Amino acid sequence: MNPLYAGVLIAIVFGLLAVSASRLRKTHTKDDYLVAGRSLPAVVLVFTLLCSWIGSGSLLGAAENAYNHGFAALWQAAGGWAGLALIYFIAPRARKFAQFTIPDLLEVRYNQLARVLGVIAVLFTYTAITSYQLIGGGDILRMVFPTMISADSPAGIYIIAGFVIIFTAIAGMSSVAYMDVLIGILATVTLLLAMPFLIHRAGGWHVVHSSLPPTHFQVLGDFSFIQAMELFLPTMLLMLGNQSMYQKFFS
């Protein structure tokens, strides 16, 4: 066990729980719990949207794509930003319905069948998303505490699942949103500080630039336009169908 990794992880856990607990006294109604009373400050909204989108897929999957294809990998991120921009204009109209979830909106706008279909879609989607996040979190715990959690043990997954359930149950959306501020600041500062160190360790930007193929610095890179759209459009559509994004804009 690496004491530094373990100490940082424990500090983060207690920090997040402290943030959640601090929001408990301000959570009294259904609106408070599900959409943070529809009163999130702009800064909190920015960070919670950031944390809703930037996760393991962005930090690891997109990073691998960038390693293989260069700046053209930004087409994937561009889809997310395009979807976020569209939600920004859609959300005010949706907010007028004063509902809480996408299935709620579907029922108000269409009928109960649309609501049921929406619930089914959300259940399948979020079951898949939650499962791989819990597995990833369990793997991190196993790497940090290898003597306590064996490779074939599901204990890490159960611990992560319990933690997520507890901090979400404490104060709902308000808990999640204000925790995202802490997580967002931590992730942003860490990545911004890491980049110059990595470039310096590689020998400087001129060494990085000369070592990589020219396509790594082109708009499409080694992608065709169709391949770029295969990254852009699914990411944008995923963002547009992301229920948590709408809930946070409702906040």
Tell me about this structure.
The chain has 251 residues and is an all-alpha fold. Helix content is 78%, strand content 0%. The chain is built from eleven helices and no strands. It has helices at residues 3-24, 30-35, 42-53, 56-69, 74-95, 102-109, 112-144, 155-201, 205-211, 225-240, 243-250. The protein is globular.
Supply the key terms.
251 residues, mainly alpha, globular, 11 helices
Quick summary:
The chain is 78% helix and 0% strand. It is mostly helical and 251 residues long.
Range of strand content: under 5%
Number of DSSP helical runs:
11
Q: What does the average pLDDT come to?
A: 79
Portion in helices: over 70%
Please compute the radius of gyration using only Cα atoms: 20 Å
Structural class designation: mainly alpha
> Roughly how many Å apart are the termini?
41 Å
Largest sheet: none
Order of helices and strands: HHHHHHHHHHH
The count of strands amounts to 0
Multimeric organization? single chain
Low-confidence stretches: none
What is the general shape? globular
What's the helix and strand layout?
Blueprint: H1 3-24, H2 30-35, H3 42-53, H4 56-69, H5 74-95, H6 102-109, H7 112-144, H8 155-201, H9 205-211, H10 225-240, H11 243-250
Helix pairs in contact: 1-8, 3-8, 3-11, 5-10, 5-11, 6-7, 7-8
